[in-house]
Amino acid sequence: MRNLLLLSNSTMHGTEYLQYAAENVKSFLKKFSVEKVLFIPYALTDYDKYEHKVKQAFSKFGFDLKSIHRYESPIDAISEAQAIYCGGGNTFCLLKALYDFKILKPIRDRVLLDGVPYIGASAGSNVATKSINTTNDMPIVYPPSFVALELLPFNINPHYIDADVNSKHMGETREERIKQYHEVPNTPPVLCLREGSMIQVEGDNILLKGLKSARVFIRDEEPKEYDVGTDLSFLLKH
């Protein structure tokens, strides 16, 4: 029953918050007759400021939004949610908070069992997957585990950057980092979303949407490129 819209990023250069994905967000939520969205702000520390920013964007889209930190019981907030939006920031902070507030399983159950629509951007997309092992963020806090919501059986690398062939930088490229991850046995595929790209998931169907193509890394295979509009449902079978 999962219904997901997972964005690589929330803001494109020179545009307002979620502006590039406005039509995707609106059509996704309207499909489920959503009027109110529950916001998860835990990837940043100033929850009030973050809520204000996100609330303005969703208000322009025609939806009311309220942050989970406004509720006395986070678990009750999730049980009543019509839809969930999990914003970007630091993935380790976000996942630690999901564990600390004991809402990892409640969110998973609402999405997978009740079909509550879930939107994630950047860190919010990272935690929707099997684990946060392929995030780009620094581990500034320590969650009990890297295991995330497991709404999908693979990982995502948002903000994916292609190697610059003219660069003299000697550090590992993003591609090299992900291949290093896949040196570990039994690691899942990694869907690399460039800024401006996203996936929409309906049950067992995954469609690549947005502005740019994506790359898929599978252990012991060469990475492959996929254009916008491609069916990526095969990722559910690895």
UniProtKB/TrEMBL annotation:
SUPFAM superfamilies: Class I glutamine amidotransferase-like (SSF52317). InterPro entries: Class_I_gatase-like, Peptidase_S51. The keyword Protease applies. It comes from the Eukaryota. Its EC number is 3.4.13.21. It catalyses: Dipeptidase E catalyzes the hydrolysis of dipeptides Asp-|-Xaa. It does not act on peptides with N-terminal Glu, Asn or Gln, nor does it cleave isoaspartyl peptides. GO terms for biological process: proteolysis. It is found in: Cytoplasm. This is dipeptidase E.
